[in-house]
Amino acid sequence: MSGHSKWASIKHKKGAADAKRGQIFTKIIKEITVAAKMGGGDEEGNARLRTAILKAKAANMPKDNIDKAIKKGTGELEGVEYVELQYEGYGPGGIALLIETLTDNKNRTAADVKSVLGKGGGNLGTPGSVSHLFKREGIICFDASKYTEDAVLEAALEAGAEDVATEDDEIVVKTSPEDFMTVLDALNKAGFEQTSAEIERNAMMLKTLDKEKTEKVLKLVERLEELDDVQEVSHDLDVPDDFELDD
Fold first, then answer.
1. Which of 58, 107, 115, 170 is deepest in the core (most CB within 10 A)?
2. Domains and CATH numbers, the chain
3. The pTM is what?
């Protein structure tokens, strides 16, 4: 079972109800700006930028916001200088946490992450303490009510995908980071429209905790993701299919 499906489904369902639209936009704008700065403003030649734009469109971000973020990254408009920082730590029950951030103030971000971890029963680890427990992989999702797994499977494997499986109401295609855009392009050309597509860090092995500790870990992850500088939090917790996070 991948770390993607069970936690992602919970996160996305809660996110749709609870997340502030402005905060979501802010995080995506940061990603677009950094991607454009690193690889240029042409999404066809910049896989990271294209992935960020896909995320922006999925969040219904106005095109004007996307264009401005690209121009800030390429220097056409004045913008803030963001730095990518990764924090490694542990949550309740020894769950590994990989926290990826984009920030214009390292001291603020470090203090915020450390504070939230401490209040949530976690702690920071040393660099390299948990990153080896995760791998980067492309995750492309399709609506299982619109397409059959067999149809997606044939096109995906021919394009170089590593795995295709139906998880809940989604058909999930997994790729290596290097093949991500190639597989996504091939599936789009074959007529399949994704519900989401991004490169994630997923745990290679998952840990099981009791309900109380599982609840504490997921609430800690939510609080970390509410920080403006935090882009993504990966963990190695195995969340049961029937688990519901209390408000």
1. 170
2. 84-132+205-235 (3.30.70.980)
3. 0.85
